[in-house]
Write a structure and sequence with these properties.
Shape: elongated
Helix content: 40-55%
Strand content: 5-15%
Radius of gyration: 48 Å
Number of strands: 15
Number of helices: 54
Structural class: mainly alpha
Length: 1539
């Protein structure tokens, strides 16, 4: 920069006004001169007021000639030996006080000539001060400390003058700067005569060779930090007030290059660089850009009046002031100074300057310099909390900013890099040459022909970049090795090796990785930089120094100390892993060429149980970084099957197919999972394992469909991920057992040795041999080891065994393992073996049993959460593989664990034990949550296994028939009157059995073919059975014969009359008499006349008259009836036999109390049962009064309480740079504004359903669980970009036997906010949505088919298929209770809303950086589902976000945000993972479901769906129960419901 300018740093012998002082010394003898100086200095110092009490006296020096005599004497006194410390002190005090003439308020002791011309005399004094700092030779520590005290006094004075003096002239500034340069050269240029050991500050990571010997103290080492800080701070002040000319800058640069063997120089250089960079970034990128954290003292280093242009100039010049920092790794370059040459000439021990012992500190100095540059890189990248303190930590090898790159996402999702950061090329123009050269130390690379990029020309960095990359060969190294060594003095000579500088090299590699990993979406990096970067990474990853020396190894020969050892990772490789976790997640051109090199390092890190890492780098952090990289390269072999990669540095021309690396990746993944102990790392590996299995399974399916292997243009033939699990709702659940499949031996789990990569040549040869040989035994092993079936078997073995053995105590790992098993259960693999599936279920049951049997002190909420998740996983396996229950042993195992979960113990612990009956056991489950989960598994076994999906489709587990639909099909309903829910309920009898099952019994026969065609009606009852697990409809008939025998009559139409018996005996016609014949002749007595006659009574009372007339009419009617009967009897007796009265068969009964018959047959109407129903608090049978107000509404609420968990995910599409919610919502209006694969991804999430014809969950309570007329069906625009799934007419839907999920794509004009104005604009109005829904439900009982669930049943779709996921939640809120019951609470019912206040976003990003500015809270009003609590607010909402970024190579990068709860990291997707297009939709859906499921597991108040339905039924019992005694109950049974 200043090579054309002459340096003003003149030889030291001519500095310091030496001519005048020499004349003074030569004029008088030494003793006389000493006495004169001592007396003069003492006299002048006495008048200063420093040594004596009282104010200073006014100076009597009034003429310049007096000063011309005194000042040479004082200058001569400053050169006295340190034994004359008193004289030195007096001289220093006098000069320091006189310099106050430059201050606004000078001291009174300052001579008047100095006050008149302060700049002239100040320059003389500053020149004289030089002699005080000149080293005096070998001195004791105490003497050097005395000199240091005086030097500090002078430096403080000069610094004070520079800061506060308003009178400094340009010449004085230059003199001051030259003085500081000269004293630094005098103190720092000579080699250090004592090398501090590790305890004195040398970083332990430098591999320094400690030197000890009988040498004197070094004054320069003691004053180094102080003189350098004053130099740089004063220089910055001069730049602001009197900018130094180029010769001074050149002098500073040359001087600093002579001081580079001093550690203090690099520390001060870093300090000044950080302070200047902080100012530079502030005005270049604004206040929003992250600032560098520096100390309060360093904040004031930069003058406030320094202009922006000046700051930029000074920053660039100071940055290059030490030359090329990589020269610090070349001791031969550093020692090429006159001071080192002088020492080598005068020393008998050191032959060459490069052998000086002080050069042992170069590794530490080089590391400090690289840390400083790395910190500057972080500052320009905008890494938060970049500070100088982090760089100065002892032994730190990895920058703190790089550690954050491999750590997990935090709650606030703070961005790691600033959005407005400069481009990678810009940073590489500044620091690239230095970093590349430092990263290639000790690498024998031949310089490739061709010119460098124009940005590399000029400057210290550029010149350093053209240097040879190795400085440890040739004659210098040979002479160093062959240097004579005798006795203990041989240890004093430096013996630096390239391995000593690996710390700085690792720091440079880490900085390069962070620069390239900061690449923005669409940003281009120059190919020359990419090529250099890949070469540097290749060399750093394949470095042989894989160990950091322990104390006992430091004495071993270098060949033994630096040999490769298993389980060790070099500093360079560790730095690349920790700082380069995003290398394969970006669109870096040609990055796949690094896969073989990276894979070799991963095999040294991941499969090793005991790993040795560089100093103070946690093993967990290193393994996590390696896991991140492994997850990012897992999809590459199958994605680029035909791609041939030429490994970097391999000139043989051999190429390696990426597909050949897949077996090694699979083995590496499984081996790492076996030895991993960190929970977070284990969960990440589990996510990668499930991805591998699913990707392999779908790839094989695609291969079988296409009937040929994928070629290099495979990306064009790729299949939609949605085809894997949403093409049919039956395929995954009705897969049959393939008896011909082969089973992987148990001993083969993880036993295959992973192929290592000791070198590039062995890598290629190994794979070529094992994969191209046709008759070798290794070929089928490698080909089959990564097949879907082999991975399926290995995964089951590994995960199940680890769950039972070592993962059972960690809740997060257990949940991740169970989620993986659930994902495996739903895979469709051609060679799936029923035995392996049976073992999986058996191990799940063993896991549940082992968890339940743990000691009481181990039982906790987390433990029970794992048990609940295990029960759910078992349900998934049984539904997906129903044939397992055909095995008696498997069925018994499942039922035993269900019994254990419900009752807390097994009836038969061992097969030899006698089983205990139910009433003999104490009902003591592990917890209510465990009991509920066991009941859910039992219900799934009894009702869903083998029958899901039902004829109603996967959209509903319950029957779609309700009271209104059944009544319309009855023979007695004419269809003329208006049918409402209230009126329909009047035709049914309602009973509740066991306080959990509601029976709605209809005694009217349905108008079906059986009733119409059969001549003999049967007792028929139609029952709607509502239970905790859904609603079913049954029609039952009481039959004495089977249906196939009903047509055979066992009796004739006319059995015939028996023969009459004529001998009937004598018949006597006797007329009965009630009174004797003389009764009328008996006279009446007075007593008889006391009773009034009938006529008198009738005449007196009108009422009696009317009653009498009515009685006479009854008597006349009865008399006529009896006479008619008498005549009929006489006619029958006269003619015998009578044809009309002939015996005929009685007519069949057409009226039955079928409800009574049904209840009686089930044992509910026995005397004991009825007595219990009357007296018991929880009766076995309760009758409900359906005529009460609100009954129909509560019945509909019960039907709308789903028996599966329901969840909603909202999908957004974000174009590059968008942050406004309206802009984001508008992207999905047209397919031209979205990515070509976006619609394919949506179809992979689920299948399309019409919200008006869909009986399941639709994403909002207003349209869920209801079927409306066909007129509201609507259509989807074929050119939409996702807005057709906004929820107005259609949504994407997915379900299995345990859960439902709706995927809604909000749109600006037709989203849910448009349908529900009450919820638009303010999410605090969610309560209004619930209130309006309550009114709609309560008004639904009054009629209208718009709210009917089954008015027009949708056709059954036999091709609808649901795939895999763990169940989720959403239907835990009351769908509007009546106003009169809002204050009533039953059990935990009111707290069921606790899990509704969370959201799941799926966000497609065109630019990955937009994930940090995504307006999640602003979009909350568009995601209202109606399930939120009325007090829900945006600040209380927990938002889980799955970001998807499409890479240009066809893969997809995943970022997860919001997983900050205790049960975090829901899988299978992992933050930062890269997945293929095949499995994107499936994995995103599973992750969203698992997020919601873990949220429910974490909630203390969550209730499963069947518990909520049971509580609803119990609530209705409390409200509508008939209060009847036993007779009234019997009367109710014999009474028609409508009476």
């Amino acid at each position: 920069m200043f090579s054309d300018w002459p340096s003003e740093l003149v030889p030291q012998q001519g500095w310091g006004d030496e001519a005048a002082i020499s004349a003074f010394k030569d004029a008088i003898p030494w003793t006389v001169g000493r006495d004169f100086v001592a007396g003069t200095a003492k006299h002048l110092a006495g008048s200063l007021g420093l040594t004596k009490p009282g104010p200073p006296t006014k100076s009597k020096i009034i003429h310049d000639k007096q000063l011309q005599v005194l000042m040479p004497a004082l200058g001569h006194g400053l050169s006295f030996p340190l034994s004359e410390i008193d004289i030195l002190r007096d001289c220093v005090n006098v000069y320091c006080e006189w310099l106050s003439a430059l201050l606004p308020n000078p001291k009174s002791s300052v001579p008047s000539p100095i006050l008149n011309d302060p700049n002239h005399y100040a320059r003389i004094i500053i020149n004289h001060f030089y002699y005080l700092f000149v080293p005096r030779g070998a001195q004791g520590p105490d003497v050097i400390n005395r000199q240091a005290v005086l030097c500090h006094r002078v430096l403080r004075t000069l610094q004070n003058i520079a800061q506060n003096s308003p009178y400094l002239s340009e010449d004085t500034w230059q003199t001051l700067l030259m003085f500081l340069l000269h004293i630094n050269s005098a103190l720092l240029s000579p080699p250090t005569v004592k090398v501090p050991d590790e305890s004195e500050g040398a970083p332990s990571s430098t591999l320094s060779l400690n030197f000890t010997g009988d040498v004197a103290e070094d004054a320069g080492e003691q004053l180094c930090e102080r003189v350098l800080s004053v130099l740089f701070e004063t220089w910055l002040l001069a730049c602001a007030r009197c900018f130094p000319p180029p010769p001074l800058w050149n002098a500073l640069r040359e001087s600093c290059q002579r001081w580079r063997h001093r550690a203090g120089l690099i520390e001060q250089w870093n300090r000044i660089n950080f302070a200047l960079t902080r100012k530079l970034i502030c005005f270049m990128y604004g206040s929003s850009f992250p600032e560098i954290s520096i100390s309060e003292d360093d904040l004031n280093i930069i003058p406030t009046n320094m202009s922006k242009d000046c700051i930029a100039q000074v920053w660039y010049r100071i940055l290059h002031i030490i030359g090329n920092p990589v020269d610090l790794s070349r001791h031969t370059v550093i020692s090429k100074t006159p001071a080192f040459l002088k020492y080598a000439i005068s020393s008998a021990l050191v032959i060459e300057p490069s052998q000086h012992p002080c050069l042992q500190m170069l590794p530490s100095i080089f590391l400090t310099a690289m840390k400083g540059i790395s910190g500057l890189v972080d500052a320009f990248l905008g890494v938060p909390n970049t500070s100088l303190d982090n760089l100065n930590q002892k032994g730190r090898q990895i920058s703190p900013s790089s550690v954050s790159l491999s750590s997990e996402s935090k709650d606030n999702a703070a961005r790691l890099l600033a959005n407005g950061r400069p481009k990678c090329n810009s940073i590489l123009h500044l620091f690239g040459p230095w970093l590349f050269e430092a990263a290639l130390i000790n690498c024998n690379l031949q310089a490739s022909p061709g010119s460098q990029h124009k940005s590399d020309a000029g400057g210290g960095a550029s010149s350093g970049a053209r240097r040879p990359v190795s400085g440890f060969g040739g004659e210098v190294a040979k002479k160093t090795t062959d240097a004579p060594a005798s006795g203990d003095h041989s240890e004093r000579l430096t013996n630096l090796m390239p391995q000593h500088f690996q710390g700085g090299r690792a720091e440079a590699l880490g900085a390069l990785c962070r620069i390239f990993c900061s690449k923005k979406t669409g940003e281009e990096i120059l190919p020359v930089y990419l090529a250099r970067f890949y070469i540097a990474l290749h060399q750093g990853l394949r470095e042989s120094d894989t160990a950091i020396l322990s104390p006992h190894e430091s004495s071993q020969p270098p060949t033994q100390r630096y040999s490769t050892k298993a389980g060790m990772c070099s500093e360079t490789a560790a730095s690349v892993l920790v700082n380069g976790v995003d290398l394969f997640r970006l669109d870096l051109q040609g990055v796949v060429s690094l896969v073989p090199s990276v894979l070799g390092v991963l095999e040294c890190v991941l499969p090793e149980g005991e790993l040795s890492t560089p100093l103070q780098l946690p093993v967990t952090l290193l393994r996590r970084a390696a896991t991140h990289i492994l997850l990012s390269i897992l999809p590459l072999p199958l994605h680029f099957q035909g791609l041939q990669v030429k490994e970097i540095g391999n000139n043989s021309g051999e190429r390696l197919a990426l597909s050949h690396l897949r077996p090694q990746l699979v083995n590496l993944l499984t081996n790492a999972l076996q030895v991993e102990t960190d929970p977070s790392n284990t969960q990440m590996l589990l996510g990668g394992l499930l991805f591998c299995v699913q990707d392999a399974a779908l790839c094989e399916v695609m291969d079988s469909i296409s009937q040929h292997n994928f070629s290099t243009d495979r990306d064009h033939n790729i299949m939609s991920s949605g085809a894997s699990d949403t093409v049919s709702s039956h395929g995954d659940y009705n897969s049959l057992l393939d008896e011909a499949c082969e089973v992987l031996p148990e001993g083969g789990l993880g036993q295959m040795s992973a192929t290592s990569f000791p070198s590039s040549s062995t890598t290629t040869t190994t794979h070529a041999t094992m994969l191209t040989t046709t008759d070798g035994e290794a070929t089928p092993i490698l080909e089959d080891s990564d097949s879907a079936h082999a991975l399926f078997v290995r995964s089951i073995y590994l995960v199940c065994h680890r769950l039972i053995s070592s993962w059972k105590s960690d809740v997060n790992v257990s949940l991740a393992g169970l989620e993986l098993l659930s994902g495996l259960a739903r895979l469709s693999i051609a060679e799936q073996d029923g035995l392996e599936c049976k073992r999986a279920v058996k191990w799940l049951c063993d896991y549940i049993a082992s968890q339940c049997y743990r000691p009481p002190r181990a039982h906790s909420k987390d433990l029970h959460s794992t048990i609940v998740a295990a029960f759910h996983c078992a349900s998934v396996w049984l539904v997906a593989h129903p044939y397992l229950l055909q095995d008696k042993e498997c069925l018994a195992t499942v039922l035993e664990v269900v019994e254990l979960g419900i009752s807390g113990s097994k009836s038969q612990v061992k097969s030899s034990d006698a089983p205990r009956l139910k009433h003999e056991k104490e009902l003591k489950p592990a917890s209510m949550r465990v009991r509920d989960a066991a009941e859910a598994l039992l219900s799934c076994v009894l009702s869903q296994v083998g029958t899901f999906p039902s004829v109603c489709g996967a959209e509903s587990l319950s029957s779609l028939l309700d009271e209104m639909t059944l009544l319309r099909h009855c023979n007695t309903w004419g269809g003329s009157d208006q049918l409402t829910r209230d009126s329909a309920a009047q035709h049914f009898r309602y009973f509740v059995a066991q306080n959990s099952i509601m029976l709605a019994l209809l005694e009217q026969p349905l108008g079906n073919h059986q009733v119409c065609t059969l001549p003999d009606p049967q007792p028929t009852v139609t029952a709607l059975i509502r239970g905790p697990f859904g609603r079913v409809a049954w029609t039952m008939q009481l039959r004495h014969l089977p249906r196939h025998k009903s047509s055979a009559k066992l009796y004739t139409v006319n059995p015939g009359r028996p023969l009459p018996m004529n001998d009937v005996g004598i018949k006597h016609n006797v007329k009965p008499k009630y009174f004797p014949d003389s009764v009328e002749r008996i006279p009446l007595c007075k007593a008889d006349k006391s009773v009034p006659s009938l006529e008198s009574v009738i005449m007196n009372e009108e009422k009696s008259t009317l009653e009498h007339e009515k009685l006479l009419q009854i008597l006349d009617h009865q008399i006529a009836f009896e006479e008619n009967v008498q005549r009929q009897v006489e006619r029958e007796t006269s003619e015998y036999p009578d044809v009309e009265t002939e015996c005929v068969a009685p007519s069949l009964c057409h009226e039955f109390q079928t409800a009574r018959l049904l209840l009686s047959h089930f044992g509910f109407l026995s005397l004991d049962a009825l007595q219990e129903s009357v007296e018991s608090a929880v009766p076995s049978l309760v009758a409900l009064d359906s005529s009460m107000a609100g009954f129909a509404r509560d019945l509909e609420i019960l039907d709308n309480t789903n028996n599966r968990t329901v969840d909603t995910a909202h999908v957004f599409y974000v174009q590059a740079g968008q942050t406004a919610p309206l802009d984001i919502l508008s992207n999905v209006v047209s397919c031209s504004s979205v990515h070509p694969h976006f619609m394919e991804f949506l179809n992979g999430l689920g299948w399309t359903v019409n919200v008006h014809q869909h009986p399941g969950w639709t994403g909002h309570v207003s349209t869920a669980f209801s079927v409306t007329p066909q007129s509201q069906e609507g259509t989807i625009d074929s050119n939409h970009g996702g807005s057709g799934f906004s929820g107005k007419t259609h949504v994407l839907y997915w379900s299995d036997a345990l859960s439902e999920m709706a995927f809604v794509v909000p749109a600006p004009s037709q989203g849910l906010t448009a349908c529900h104005p009450s919820s638009s604009g303010n999410i605090n109005t969610v309560g209004l949505v619930l209130d309006s829904y309550d009114k709609a439900v309560s008004g639904g009982g009054g009629g209208g088919s718009g709210s009917e669930r089954s008015d027009s049943l949708p056709p059954c779709d036999a091709d609808v298929e649901g795939s895999s996921s763990i169940s989720s939640h959403a239907s835990q809120t009351s769908y509007g209770q009546g106003s009169e019951n809002r204050s009533r609470k039953f059990g935990r019912q009111t707290s069921a809303v606790a899990c509704s206040d969370h959201k799941v976003y799926i966000v497609w990003l065109e630019s990955f950086d937009d994930c940090y500015t995504f307006p999640a809270l602003e979009l909350l009003p568009e995601t209202v589902t109606g399930l939120e609590s009325s007090s829900w607010k945006d600040k209380e909402a927990m938002v889980y976000i799955i970001f998807i970024h499409a890479l240009t190579n066809g893969l997809f990068r995943i970022r997860l945000q919001g997983q900050n709860a205790k049960l975090n990291m829901a899988g299978p997707l992992v933050d930062g993972q890269v997945v293929s297009r095949r499995v994107l939709g499936t994995l995103v859906r599973q992750t969203a479901l698992n997020m919601c499921r873990r949220r429910r597991l974490e909630s203390d108040s969550y209730q499963p769906p069947h518990v909520r339905r049971k509580l609803r039924i119990q609530e209705m019992v409390q409200k509508y129960r008939y209060e009847m005694n036993e007779p009234e109950f019997y009367t109710h049974l014999f009474t028609s419901p409508l009476c």
